[in-house]
Amino acid sequence: MASSASQHVVVVALSSVSHIYPWLALVEELARRGHRVTAAAGEPVRGLFAESGVDFVGHETLLPDPATGRAGGLTSIPADAGEVMQLFLREAQAQYPHLARAFAEDPPDLVLHDPGAMAGQVLARAHGVPAVGLAIMPMAWPDPDAEPDPRLLAALGSADSASRFYELADAWLADNGVPEGAHALQTYPHATLSLVPRVMQPGAERAPENVRFVGPCLSPQRLADRSWAPPADGRRVVLVSLGNSFNDRPDFYRACLDAFGGTDWHLVLVAGKYAGTDELGPIPDGVEVLARVPQLAVLESAAAFVTHAGMGGCVEALWYAVPTVAVPQGIDQHGNAARMVELGVGAHLPAEEITPESLRRAVEAVSADPAIAERLARVRAELRAGGGVDLAANAVESFLVG
């Protein structure tokens, strides 16, 4: 499907690699179809769009730089979800003046936005154009006949921090022409593309009509990346990664080295700033300690994945039918871990139970379970038939021409 004429699509993003990768291929496809696409985010992520055909409007960000781990006085994202929402609000307040100037004489025809990037909703309202959310984690919507999902409620963090967020956000939104407030925007979503697979969305069958499930939109470039190769000795590969936000865990990395070093496993340990330093001690045989990896390339060969259970990692593990051991750190990760266990495709190992022995036992168990392998094969087939980039781009164009 193609629109009748090229139009200007602005995508307002959070300055986080894990928040951009899920939809990067979508905006690249829109640009390939002839639309003018402009991404707006913090300067540290400019490089993600360098070869995408997408223009970029940058700003100074409050969020940690993915390369240095530091920006705006922060070295990591808070674990409490209410505090995270307050941080994203401050980011939106700092970002919006840049957007207002950048698009005053060059307005968008449609705004795509990360659900956490409220500046996008304000920009769309200011220009009277559609706003379409890009959902990269499970959403919550009301159901008068069902009890609230406790996993989604737990993700709100402390009551005080969440209440403070809504107080501050409602005032800012009202000052900028969005009087219905943050809770209404979140609970009764406007047009939304969900890049979360239906199997990972609690209550997917109750989704409002304005939520369209388009499935994972994995980047063709990432899928084709072969900059990592499996070990020549044929050892089983276990990938360990805690993502970009909650990864300051040298104790955990040492436990992984003790669990898999010198065994019949080949460990690929993503250790962020600890890679290449002496802080983890001697690196045993059969171990790669890296700051970052082409995760899809590793997962394609992996027999198991020890993950913080961010939605991106969960989806990518399901895409390659890799069994998981989830060690969630915060925000939505506990709910994602619970969902993976509920689907029967992995195990949950609480932080307080992590030892070299427990890690090794959990990985051995999930990788050797034929029932897990069978369920993963079914889920992988469902994900790969879900639509992806073309379906998502068609949906965006329907909002443009509709």
From TrEMBL:
GO molecular function: hexosyltransferase activity; UDP-glycosyltransferase activity
Alphabetical GO biological process terms: antibiotic biosynthetic process
SUPFAM superfamilies the UniProt entry points to: UDP-Glycosyltransferase/glycogen phosphorylase
Domain Erythromycin biosynthesis protein CIII-like C-terminal: from-to ranges: 257-384
InterPro entries for this protein: EryCIII-like_C, Glycosyltransferase_28, UDP_glucos_trans, UDPGT_MGT-like
Gene3D superfamilies: Glycogen Phosphorylase B (3.40.50.2000)
Family matches, as NCBIfam families: MGT
Family as reported in the entry's similarity comment: Belongs to the UDP-glycosyltransferase family.
Record-given protein name: Erythromycin biosynthesis protein CIII-like C-terminal domain-containing protein
Organism in which the protein naturally occurs: Actinokineospora bangkokensis
